[in-house]
Amino acid sequence: MQIDAVDQRIIALLVADARASYADIGARVSLSAPAVKRRVDRLRATGVIRGFTAVVDPAAVGWTTEAFVELFCAGRTTPAQIGVAARRHPEVVGAYTVSGEADALVHLRAADIGHLEAALERLRAESFVTSTRSTIVLSRLVESPGVGPSAGTS
Fold first, then answer.
1. Which GO terms describe its biological process (predicted)?
2. Alpha helix (H) residue ranges in the chain
3. Closest CA relative to residue 136, chosen from 64, 62, 63, 66
4. How far is residue 111's CA from residue 108's CA, in Å, rounded to a whole number?
5. What are phi and psi of 91, to 5 degrees?
6. Cβ count near 41 (within 10 Å)
7. How many CA atoms lie within 13 A of 20 on its CB side?
């Protein structure tokens, strides 16, 4: 599917505010509301836009402690096995296969250090995990919900 510059701007605007009306988006990209709707429908139908979601401030719900955990796995552990295991833990907000020594990188959020420690212990108890290496986040410097360099720009 071809995505043109207007589609890219529509996507960036939706990433910045998924509740923006088609009329508001149309005014920003010089299209009518129905034209924007047709483009969004096409982007959804082709899987470019997979859905809309609420972005919750972790501090507002009390999950202010976070860490990145390198997983070291036994033998021929597959990415699918890691993904299934990661989804079992509510503290996991992201899991990725990576290059380097570790087999995967897991992003955890928790209410406090005790909660984080409990989550790490449960993650370490997965049958394929041989060891972990954790890094606790002290502060967030840059965070962008978008895709690509134009996300969130007008």
1. response to amino acid
2. 5-16, 22-29, 33-45, 79-87, 113-124
3. 66
4. 10
5. -75, -15
6. 11
7. 23
Do residues 22 and 39 lie in contact, with contact meaning Cβ atoms separated by under 8 Å? no
Q: What does the block give as tokens for 49?
A: 């836009």
pTM summary value = 0.72
Q: Which of 52, 66, 60 is nearest to 14 (CA)?
A: 52
Q: Which amino acid is at 141?
A: L
Taking Cα atoms as reference points, which of 139, 143, 153, 152 lies closest to residue 64? 139
Domains and CATH numbers, the chain: 5-46 (1.10.10.10), 58-137 (3.30.70.920)
Residue 74 phi, psi dihedral angles, 5° rounding:
-80, 145
CA distance 28 to 147: 19
Tokens (6 digits) for 110: 């928790």
Beta carbons within 10 angstroms of residue 146's beta carbon: 14
Per-residue pLDDT tens for 100-149?
999 999 999 999 999 999 999 999 999 999 999 999 999 989 877 666 54
